[in-house]
Amino acid sequence: IQNAIKAMKEVNIDITNQTSDVIDVNILNKADIVVTLCGHANDVCPTTPPHVNRVHWGF
User: Gene3D superfamilies of this UniProt entry (predicted)?
Assistant: First the structure.
């Protein structure tokens, strides 16, 4: 998180008060695609419905 805060400050964007939230199941059910980003998200994120295309871009 600290690296993200530092990187965003370099372009004058303050994300120090941002938080991650659990995905609302209703929104997830309406999604066409879900992209996970953090390194462990592919392992720890909840299972997506069968109709949702899930892509992992680990950093």
Answer: 3.40.50.2300
